[in-house]
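Reviewer 2 asked us to include a model.

Predict the structure of this chain.
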Amino acid sequence: MLALWIVLGVVALLVLLLIGLYNSLVTARNRVENAWSQIDVQLKRRHDLIPNLVEVCKGYMKYEQNVLESVTKARQQAVQIAGGSVQDRAQAESVLTGALRQLFAVAENYPDLKANQNMLALQEELTATENRIAFARQHYNDSVMGYNTQIQQSPANLFAASLGFQPKDFFELTDPAQREPVKVQF
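Predicted model (structure tokens):
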């Protein structure tokens, strides 16, 4: 009879440990999903600012329609891919970042545009949003690192895959050209 109680105690302990492990993994996964939604909020804010920026620039940059069109097209693609994978979103946002960099570089050639109060306000808003995106991306990547580490460590690695916990992708730049500084030429 004592042996039965010992076996039941060990089984109960293992069940409690498995429940604790599962709850810990769920918490880590939810942190990743929350961090991703924070990125999503900031990207939406960025996407909402861009049409206003393009409108302000249109009147001044009559000879730079290709730049304005590339920004508009990159924004449209980024908005359309909103439900895509992390890698697809990162790629689309990298293209959009490059188009915005090109727009700001060309805007340097238009002193009236640079002095326009609407343009200055939009640049300030966009800069603040870019900083928020960078912070949200860092938080997301930190959450992904913690989650991925947790599902790869023992004993979680023995159960994580069978419980439906898969590694998450980092939100990172995929195009090495995006790491280069913007080149402004006058």
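The chain has one domain: 34-179. The longest helix spans residues 2-58. We have added this to the supplementary material.
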